[in-house]
Amino acid sequence: MELMRIFSYASIILSISVYLLPIMVNSIGINYGQIADNLPSPENVVPLVKSIGVTKVKLYDADPRVLGAFANSGVEFMIGLGNGDLEKMRDPNNAQDWVKQNVQAHLPDTKITCIFVGNEVLTFNDTNLSDNLVPAMQSVHTALVNLGLDKQVTVTTAHSLGILQTSFPPSAGAFREDLVDILSQTLSFHQKTGSPFLINAYPFFAYKGNPKQVSLDFVLFQPNQGVIDPTTNLHYDNMLYAQIDSVYSALASLGYEKLPVHISETGWPTKGDEDEAGATPDNAKKYNGNLIKLMSQNAGTPLRPDSDLNIYVFALFNENMKPGPTSERNYGLFKPDGTPAYALGVTNNNTASGSIGNEVTMPFSPTSSSTGYLSISSATGRRKFVGHALMMASLLLIKTLV
C-alpha cells in the first residue's frame, strides 16, 4: 500500500513539474500550514514543493519532522514562534533553549534563515501580547547572537494590514496612532538587526466585503483601468501593489523608508460560504497565476520599482481542521492528495503552459490616466497560527473618489 502511494505521488509530481516549473522559475515562497488530519508526510511534501519551483517555505511552528525532511533540499525556511509563547520567550534562558532545540539543531542541513515571533499580534488588541512582543524578539535575537547564528538567521514578526490607519492613496499610508509607539520599537529592532518587515495582505477581503463596489479585475490582477495616486501620479492596476506601497509610505512617515517589506501571506480561496463572494477556483487561479507571473518579471511596485517582491503565497494545502468560515479551509494550491486544487494556467514568454489549465492574461498598463480613484481602507486581516487560527477581517472598502 505504501509503495502504491509513493508511485502515485511520483506520477502527480512529474505531471505538475512538466507544466508548472517553467512558470515558477524565479524565487517564490509558500506558506506550509498543517491544521489538518489528512496531509501527506513531510517526506512526500519535499518533492512536491521542489517540483513547482518553490525555494522558500514559511512554517507556522518549528515542526522537527518538516525541518528534518527538508534537510539538504536547498529550500530556505522561515519558522514561527506562536503568540502563546511570547511571554515565556521574554526570559533569555527560555529563548536560548528554544533556539538551540529548534534552530541550531537543524543547521546547516536545513536552511533556516528567519524566525517570526508572533503572528498579527498588534491587531489582537491584547496589551499582554503587545507588551511581550518586542522583548520576546529581543531575547530570541540575543540567543542567536550568543550562539553565533545572528548573521544567518534574522528575527521578525508578521502584521496584518489592520495596523494601517489609512492606505489610500498609497502615498498617504499611515499606521494607527495607537500603535505608533510599539511599532516604532519593532521598526528600530528591524533596523538594528537587519530583519524585514512582514505584512499579510489579502485583496480577497476587499471583494468579499463589498463585491458591488470593489472591482474584481483590480483585485485579481486582470486588465482594468486602474487608479492614479494624485500625490505621486503613480498608476496602480492592482490592489496588492497599492497595499504594499501604502505600507512603504507608512514606514517612511516614521523614518524607515529603507526598511525591506516582505509579503508573508497572500492568496485566494477556492471555496467559501454564501457571504464570501468571489471564493471560486477560477478566481483563485487568476489571482495566484497572475501574481506568480508578475513575480517572474522581477519588477517591484510603482513606488519601489527596484525592490524585490518577496512574497509567500498562502497556502500549500487546503487544511480541513481550520476553524472559521469555509474559505479558511480552502486556500491551498494543492489538495491533501497532492493534486492541484485548480489549474494554474499561465502563458510564459508567449508559450502556453500546457493542458494543466487555461491561459491567464497579464494586467496591462493603460495609455491614458484614470480619472477615478479608489479608496482602500485598512483590514484587520486573517490570523493563522496554531492556537490562534482565527479570522478577524474588517472590510477593505473601495469607493470612487470625487
Automatic annotation (TrEMBL):
It is an enzyme of class 3 (hydrolase). The keyword Chaperone does not apply. It catalyses: Hydrolysis of (1->3)-beta-D-glucosidic linkages in (1->3)-beta-D-glucans. Its EC number is 3.2.1.39. The chain crosses the membrane at residues 6-25. Pfam families: Glyco_hydro_17. Keywords: Glycosidase, Hydrolase, Membrane, Transmembrane, Transmembrane helix. InterPro entries: GH, Glyco_hydro_17, Glyco_hydro_17_plant. It comes from the Eukaryota. Belongs to the glycosyl hydrolase 17 family. This is glucan endo-1,3-beta-D-glucosidase. It comes from Gossypium hirsutum (Upland cotton). The lineage of its organism: Eukaryota, Viridiplantae, Streptophyta, Embryophyta, Tracheophyta.
